[in-house]
Amino acid sequence: ARHAPEAASDTRRRPATREERERSHVRRRRVVVVLAVAAAILLAAVGWAVYGYFRLAHTLQAPDPQTVREVRAVLDTPPPPSAQATSAPEYILLLGDDARPGEKRARSDTIIIARVDVMTTKTVSLLSLPRDSRVPIDGHGLDKITHANAFGGPALAIKTVKDYTGLPINHYVKIRFLGLSKVVDSMGGIVMNVDAAVPDYLIQKGVQRLNGTKALAFVRNRALAGGDFARIRHQQQFLKAMAKQALQRENVTRLPAIIDSAAGNIETDMSIPQIVALANNLRGTNTDAIPTYMIPGKGARIGGIYYYIPDEARTASMISEFKIGQVPAQ
Fold it and tell me: Do the Cβ atoms of 181 and 294 come closer than 8 Å?
């Protein structure tokens, strides 16, 4: 028997009605509108992110071109890895100043050299120079090292530290103490094991989370047994605790936002990508084992003024071992 052919009308699409064409047109128009809105939002977000990045990057630089040029002239270029050098540590000078609003230059209450090795050992060492150390300052003779920043800004502070220690300085970070407080708050506080109570700021001895105000009091307070030496110890302890928290995955990804919280109070030659890359490279570092050291010496009064007089022989030995990554002699 012969099969009857299928009706042609079953495979042939009938013309759309006017109502169906209008509905299809409306759907296409809605899709176009949605895509256009999404594209506009994406472009706005990208534009805002780019604007925010360049705004933030700009605020991290020194406030005037002359200072930028002066700083670049004294910084050392980081050494590249090579077959002869399996380790290429970088040295970052950390300066904490007490500048008040409107002041361009102030004394450096905190002067710490961070030796950072991300190539081989992923280690960090911290070497503190007491603010009252009596050292040569170019153009000003022997004076307290804290005055170098007040005399000539970060460029003179960098040069003074380089001349005295013989260490290269590849980068610098200067932060006003107000900015430090904001960074701490943006990180949700810093967990620390406080070794001595600071009653005026309700800081108790023991493990606790310090907010920005309390952290600032902890690193600046000298009204404790040990005076400036106790403050240096607290600054080192704080930096270790802060590094431990900052290198956690959730905070590494938030670094630009954390830095933005203190924009205007942080000054550095490093770009945001450099800072984030450094943090990523240091993830996994045992921050509890970061060695912290201080230039050895003793206090003395000269002309009625208190100075810290470094022990030249012990200082030279410490710096030599610090430079090659060994545990510095005390």
Answer: no
HEC readout, the chain: CCCCCCCHHHHCCCCCCHHHHHHHHHHHHHHHHHHHHHHHHHHHHHHHHHHHHHHHHHHHCCCCHHHHHHHHHHCCCCCCCCCCCCCCCEEEEEEEECCCCCCCCCCEEEEEEEEEECCCCCEEEEEECCCCEEEEECCCEEEECCHHHHHHHHHHHHHHHHHHHCCCCCEEEEEEHHHHHHHHHHCCCEEEEECCCEHHHCECCEEEEECHHHHHHHHHCCCCCCHHHHHHHHHHHHHHHHHHHHCCHHHHCCHHHHHHCCCCCEEECCCHHHHHHHHHHCCCCCHHHCCEEECCEEEEEECCEEEEEECHHHHHHHHHHHHCCCCCCC
Average pLDDT of span 235-254: 87
| Token output for 275 | 């800072």
Radius of gyration of the chain (CA): 29
Report pLDDT for 116: 92
Shortest CA distance to 182 belongs to which of 266, 98, 262, 99?
262
At 275, the pLDDT band (50, 70, 90 cuts) reads confident
* Neighbour tally for 262: CB within 10 Å: 22
Q: Taking phi first (over 0 means left), then psi (-120 to 50 degrees means alpha), and beta for anything else, what does residue 304 get?
A: left
Buried b / exposed e along 66-104 (16+ C-beta atoms within 10 A): ebbebbeebbeeeeeeeeeeeeebbbbbbbbbbbeeeee
In total, the chain counts a number of residues equal to 330
pTM, to two decimals: 0.79
Which tens digit of pLDDT belongs to each residue from 126-148?
999 999 999 999 999 999 999 99
Identify the top-confidence range among 17-26, 144-153, 273-282. Answer: 144-153
Distance between CA atoms of 247 and 240, rounded to whole angstroms?
11
CA pseudo-torsion sign 174, 175, 176, 177:
negative
